[in-house]
Prior knowledge:
Elements: H1 3-28, H2 32-59
Organism: Cohnella kolymensis
Protein name: Fur-regulated basic protein FbpA
Amino acid sequence: xxxxxxLGRRSEILKRNISHLMLKKNRCGLxxxxxxxxxSMIKELHQNEYQLNAVRNQSx
Length: 60
């Protein structure tokens, strides 16, 4: 597996986990710990997407 594939897979997993938390947030709200987890996942997704784009631009 290449680094780009790993970053892509990680993005998919983060997006799926974020969507589950988003549904729960809309349905019944999140607790304090869940809210912190949600925010950290979003930050991690943004960092991952930035790294993915940087690696793709370097390979071109």
